[in-house]
Amino acid sequence: MLPLERHRLIVELLGQRGVMRVNEIAQATQVSRETIRRDLSELERKGILNRSHGGALAAENPLPAIRAASPALPVEDSQGSFQQRTLLHSEGKMRVARKALQCLQPGQTIVLDGSSTSWFLARQMPEMALTVITPSIRILQTLMSRRSLHLVGLGGDFSPTEEAFFGETASRTLREYAVDTLFFSCQGLERDSGLYAGTEAHAALLKQMMLAAR
């Protein structure tokens, strides 16, 4: 397991359990306790976790909870197909996309989720040296002629309605990259409950995207 992939697994495990001992993490990642101690020290320096005697604690600002707005739907979004969503609130999505473009800097590695808002961002993306990672077929098609971009498509379980890939294969590919900036959309946000994604598949992939971008 590569160090970057191991770090993300440690963060994910701490997010689930809150606290773990060094030997538990070593067993889960199949490396030595000395390696885990170095990993924990590095992650603590980055503010991602807090060290404790013999283990580690989840940071005070962990990833927000991400839930499916439509848990009964494994992949298809309750708000309609991707094509239908491109027609909803298109002017507002264009404004959001233009604002988001101001965050881009040459040389960055970015993730665009499979939302229609991210597609509007892709349509307006300037010629710039970037690595763009996305599960969206539509976004890949939009950007494929941009010579300055390095495109990475996330494979996996394909949803024709969403025009995007989901599942463990997509998540596993994400773990191989250090992401500078993540652009995503969600169906809702509550202060106490966290984020709401369209489906369970959306929620799982979005969580992995956030881990990659930390």
List the helices and strands and how they pair.
Layout: H1 3-17, E1 19-21, H2 22-29, H3 33-45, E2 49-52, E3 55-58, E4 66-68, H4 82-86, H5 90-101, E5 109-112, H6 116-124, E6 130-134, H7 137-143, E7 149-153, E8 157-159, E9 164-166, H8 168-174, E10 181-183, E11 188-190, E12 194-197, H9 200-212
Parallel strand pairs: 4-12, 5-6, 5-10, 6-7
Antiparallel strand pairs: 1-3, 2-3, 8-9, 11-12
Domain HTH deoR-type: 3-58
Protein name: DeoR/GlpR transcriptional regulator
Pfam families: DeoRC, HTH_DeoR
Keywords:
214 residues; alpha/beta; Arc Repressor Mutant, subunit A; 2 domains; four-stranded parallel β-sheet; three-stranded antiparallel β-sheet; 9 helices; 12 strands; globular; DNA binding; Carb_Metab_HTH_regulators; transcription; WH-like_DNA-bd_sf
Strand content: 15-25%
Report how far the terminal alpha carbons are from each other.
19 Å
Number of helices: 9
Per CATH, which architecture of the largest domain?
A: 3-Layer(aba) Sandwich
Total strands: 12
User: What is the name of the CATH class of the largest domain?
Assistant: Alpha Beta
Helix and strand content put the structural class at alpha/beta
Name the poorly predicted regions: 71-78
Order of helices and strands: HEHHEEEHHEHEHEEEHEEEH
Q: Widest sheet: strand order? A: 7-6-5-10
